[in-house]
Design brief:
- The structure is a single chain.
- This protein is mainly beta.
- It is about 10% helix and about 40% strand.
- It is built from 2 helices and 7 strands, in the order βββββαββα.
- It has a 7-stranded antiparallel β-sheet.
- It is globular, with a radius of gyration of 16 Å.
- The N and C termini lie far apart (about 35 Å).
- The model has no long low-confidence stretch (mean pLDDT about 90).
Length: about 150
């Protein structure tokens, strides 16, 4: 089911800056460097360069911290895709030391990215998991949402 993309995940992220558009798509070419364990947005196709597509919607903006709350849906599942594409677009995730800025809060040592919603949509035989078809599971509380947008 993972390989055939028979479930949808939605993410919440706190990204630096104010977005120009309230919603949109990011389509890039991503290359993953295995030795550095880091993805990079590329301008041209090449060996191991793959298409990466995501949709986003800005839900809120915190002026004090200059951070936007963004809902993200992946259409492709590349390694570090959200982190790399957001950083390349000028909106690195809050607390992301690998692709952006750690921020001013030394307590935030990890990126503000959370998979908060999972929906199952099976089109093939799911076997013992078939009872999950059509069900959605949502996390009620995400720490950075509470901290910056409540």
């Amino acid at each position: 089911q993972v390989r055939t993309r028979e479930f949808e995940k939605e993410y919440l992220a706190a990204a630096h800056g104010r977005f120009g558009e309230s919603a949109g798509q990011m389509e890039d070419l991503l290359w993953y460097n295995r030795s550095l364990r880091k993805s990079r947005v590329m301008q041209e196709t090449g060996k191991d360069v793959k298409r990466a597509l995501l949709s986003y919607e800005v839900l809120a903006y915190c002026e004090e911290a200059d951070v936007s709350l963004v809902r993200i849906r992946l259409h492709t599942g590349r390694t570090h895709q959200i982190r790399a594409q957001m950083a390349a677009a000028g909106h690195p995730l809050l607390g992301d030391g690998k692709y952006g800025k750690l921020g001013k809060d030394p307590a935030r040592t990890y990126q503000a990215l959370y998979s908060y919603k999972l929906t199952f949509r099976f089109t093939t035989d799911a076997g013992c998991l078939s009872y999950l078809n059509g069900k959605t599971f949502t996390v009620d509380r995400v720490d950075f949402v509470q901290e910056y947008f409540s």
